[in-house]
Amino acid sequence: MRKSLIMLVLVALLATPALAVKVVDYQWLGDADYLGCNASDMTVTVGAAYNRDGFSAGNGLLMTKQTTTGYALGYIATIWGLEAGDEVTASVWRHDNNSAMPYFALWAHYNDALELAMDARGQDMSVNDGNCYGDQRLGDQTGWEEYTYTWTVEAGHTGMVIDAQVYGGAGAQLYIDDLTLIVPDHASVRTPGAVHAADGTVTAFETETWTQVKSLFD
Question: What are the structural domains, with CATH classification, of the chain?
Answer without folding.
Answer: 4-214 (2.60.120.260)
